[in-house]
Amino acid sequence: MSNFKPNYFQRREKRFGPRANEKIRSLDVQVIDSEGKNLGVLPLKKAIDIAKGEELDLIEISPNANPPVCKIMDMGKYKYDLQKKANQAKKKQKVISLKEIKLRPGTEIHDYNFKLKNAKKFISKGDKVKFTVKFKGREMQHIELGKNLMQRIIEDTKDVAKVETQPKFEGKQMVMIIQPN
What's the pLDDT score for residue 12? Predict the structure, then answer.
C-alpha cells in the first residue's frame, strides 16, 4: 500500500490583473509601443525583448482578440490606473435601499402621521419605502381596513412618491412599495 494521497482541494494560483511578459499564452501578438504607435503583429519573444529594451512590461490588453493585443507599459502604473478607474466608478453609483414601515389596521392617526413623516423623509433621501400592514386574529375578517389604509398612504404621498408595487396580500399581511418620483 502506498502513501500517495491525491489532493482534491488543490489551491489554484489566483491571477490578479492582465497577463504580462512570459505569462502571455499566444505565440504571436499585436503590439502597441509605449507612445501608442502600432508595431503590428510580432512573435511573443521579439515583443518581450522590445519591452525589456525599454525597461517596461508587455501587458495583454485585449486577450480575446485574434491575435491578442499587447501594450508596452509599466505594470505597476497600469494596475494603479485600473484601480483608480474602479474607485471612480464606485463613487458615481447610487445605492438605493429599501426601508420598511410596519402598520396595523387599527393604527391611530397620530402614529399614522408619525410613520408617514418618516416615510417622506426616506423618500426625500432617495430610498424606496415598503409599507406592511399586519393582520392578527379577527382582523383577517376586515381586510378592507388595510386596503383603505393603503389608499390613504397613496393619497398622502402622491406629491413626493409613486407606487412601484400595488398593495397585495401575502399571507397575513398586505404589502406595498413606493419609490421617489
Answer: 63
| CA–CA dist 156, 117 (Å, integer) | 10
Q: Count the residues in the chain.
A: 181
CATH number of this structure's domain 98-180: 3.30.110.10
Question: 19: Cβ–Cβ under 8 A, 6 or more apart, which residues?
Answer: 25, 59, 60, 63
- Long-range contacts: 160-168, Cβ < 8 Å, 24+? 160/120, 160/123, 160/124, 161/119, 161/120, 161/123, 161/129, 164/128
- Residue 163 and residue 151 in contact, taking contact as beta carbons nearer than 8 Å: no
CA–CA distance, 47 with 39 (Å, rounded to integer): 9
Q: Which fold has domain 21-89?
A: Ubiquitin-like (UB roll) (3.10.20)
pLDDT tens across 168-179, in order? 998 899 999 999
Ordered alpha helix ranges (H), the chain: 44-53, 75-92, 109-124, 143-157
Q: Residue 14 carries which DSSP code?
A: P
pLDDT tens-digit series, residues 33-68: 888 888 889 998 998 999 998 889 899 888 888 888
- Note the pTM of the prediction, 2 decimals: 0.53
